[in-house]
Amino acid sequence: MAERLPISTEHCIVEQDGPVVTVTMNRPEARNALSSAMLVGLADAWRYMSETPEVRVGILTGADGQFCAGADLKAMGTPPSDPEVQERMRRIPDFHWKGLLRDGRPTKPLICAIEGYAVAGGTELLVGTDLRVVAEDATLGLYEAKRGLFPMGGCAIRLPRQIGYANAMDILLTARSVTPREALAMGLVNQVVPAGTALAAARELADRIAANGPLAVQAILRVYRETEHLPEEDALKISDEIGWPVIGSQDAKEGSRAFKEKRPPVFEGK
Asked: Which of 90, 124, 134, 206 has its CA 20 to 30 A from that of 249?
């Protein structure tokens, strides 16, 4: 049964169910548009994921059939009503960039489960996650150029690297809406699922990841992030530095034993 964590805020619900943390943007009256209270909750959720050994994977979703309609500049400029959340906002350096996954991304895999609108900052959050499950009637898009704005969450850099220059410039420069099927064809998302099932599909994916060796999973993420733009020879050196300790870990031994004994492995992250 999921437990609501005390790092939740009025606009960001953080729950843990076994090894899976689910983060729900909770401002449905504004299509879950970003607010200071939401970004503080998101920033602390990513920190909690990274620092809590028993957490193996996270899911980011939105309340009431919507993901996130982007920034609400007025709400982001208004201090949260909760004094404790105000203090957290002062205490977390660059909480807005951390919450938006521009900085301080969690060291564990993060899956987004999208229903409804995921535009502007909503798509920037998508691009900051590792796996993406999207409902077939969702709407994606980076609308910033249409408003004379700039995608400050990092998409001008990340999107071309993830889906190629031509596809990225189409999305960024036209500022048009993108359908889930288009996004799947571009390689921007992993799955397109029937409306109303994105969170369930994301949880199924999370459970499959959580059953794997956590050291191996986290090492794969780390190697990619640290070597993305290095020459192969240099990248392989870093890959070896990170990978060999995993090969020698207790988890690796347990994986081999479980295979021989024809049973599911019990990984401890050691």
From this structure: 206
Please give the Cα distance from 28 to 234 (Å, whole number): 46
Largest CA distance in the chain: 61
In a 13 Å sphere around the CA of 236, the CA atoms on its Cβ side amount to 3
pTM for the whole structure? 0.96
What would the mean pLDDT of 229-250 be, rounded to a whole number? 96
Q: Within 13 A of 10's CA, how many CA atoms are on the CB side?
A: 13
Mean pLDDT of the chain, nearest integer: 96
Instruction: Give dist(CA 213, CA 232) in Å, integer.
Output: 26
- Residue 141: which pLDDT band, with cuts at 50, 70 and 90? very high
Q: Name the domain boundary from 210, 229, 249.
A: 210
Name the residue among 13, 152, 146, 140 with its Cα closest to residue 76. Answer: 152
Q: Is residue 267 part of a domain?
A: no
Check whether residue 244 and residue 168 sit in a common domain: no
Task: List active site positions.
Answer: 124, 144
For residue 182, the enclosing domain spans 3-210
DSSP state of 77: T
pLDDT at position 74 over 80: no
For residue 187, the SS3 value is coil
